Amino acid sequence: MLEVKNLKKSFGNKKVLKGISFNVSKGDVIGIIGPSGCGKSTLLRCLNLLEIPTSGTIIFEGKKMNYYHNLPATRQKIGMVFQSFNLFNNMTVLENIILAPTKLDLLTKEEATKKANEFLKKINLLDKKDSYPDELSGGEKQRIAIVRALLMEPELMLFDEPTSALDPEMIGEVTDLMREIALGGMTMIVVSHEMNFIKNFTTKVIFMDDGKIIEENTPEELFNNPKDKRLKEFLSKVNEN
Ligand code: ADP
Ligand code: MG
Q1: Are 31 and 190 within 8 A, CB to CB?
Q2: Distance, CA 36 to ligand 2 centroid (Å)?
Q3: Average pLDDT over all residues of the chain
């Protein structure tokens, strides 16, 4: 469904992505791990058209991604969840969730509201639909952000450190929801330091360092039998925490 070929991205003369290539098949759950600053967010942002690559190609559902035309149509198919939730604080939970699909005319307000209510009920937050984001916990905000992305019925979901801004006791409710979405067959790319999720719920793990993919393997192989020195070091550091 997604082919990334020799993707490069520089900011000025700073090379951030130095030739990234990988494939994603339908139903894959890809974990991306690597030290801070190695380019993980930049990679996801290129996939979601938030950054324009310097060179390389991304083929999504058989078509070369176009950074200048039809951005809303592509973004509808690729949902993104951010570390910082990115909810609009001046809108209620319900308004946040239905904003994009109604603005893009994918759903009427009634349809979007009905669907939003169903999702909210499923995650036990229906009673919060008229609350404002400031009135919610971090875990609640992130689950709302996930539901907001799901309402667009994306083909692919990108998660950029979705639990990094959360207090430890709230991480589980977010990873539980992500696991449920993965089990439902959603194709996902997850950047996370939550090694339990990465180990247990991904089909493939990519280790990045310094703008490159250093190692790519099944979670079993990557964690039990890391080959590259940098990966071994990285894993020993995350295991200390
Ligand atoms: P990660 O998500 O792995 O921590 P990022 O992709 O956020 O890494 O950042 C990789 C590098 O690119 C960092 O050195 C960061 O400072 C730089 N960078 C990211 N975005 C920009 C930008 N818009 N302008 C300049 N430098 C950037
Ligand atoms: Mg990042």
Answers
A1: yes
A2: 7
A3: 94
